[in-house]
Amino acid sequence: MADIEKLVEELSKLSVLEAAELVKALEEKWGVSAAAPVAAVAAMPAGGAAAAEPVEEKTEFDVILKDAGPKKIETIKVIRQLTNLGLVEAKNMAETAGSKVLSAVGKEAAQDAKSKLEAAGAVVEVA
User: Fold this and answer.
1) pLDDT at position 104, please?
2) pTM, two decimal places
């Protein structure tokens, strides 16, 4: 049998994303669900609830251009407004699917950039 203390130490080193991946893998392997019934969660002692790490809200977003759309010139103009790039650089960005127009910007700035690019006909993703 595995040393429980050692196993707990190793699992404590996992990031939240790694722990989520572990849960998925175990659910698939064992054919079970890790979702706790409501009654069990309510009966859980307060110490157990405090041990769970709070999920942090994402504060930085990337604006990714998936496709320049049918009005590429309009998209290039918007890219230049948002980034202060030159014409050639903005054109290259518009022609390259998956280009990051903006990196690590706030939620409002990302949504504003997305709406401007979509108004120009581009297909945009905020990640």
Assistant:
1) 87
2) 0.54
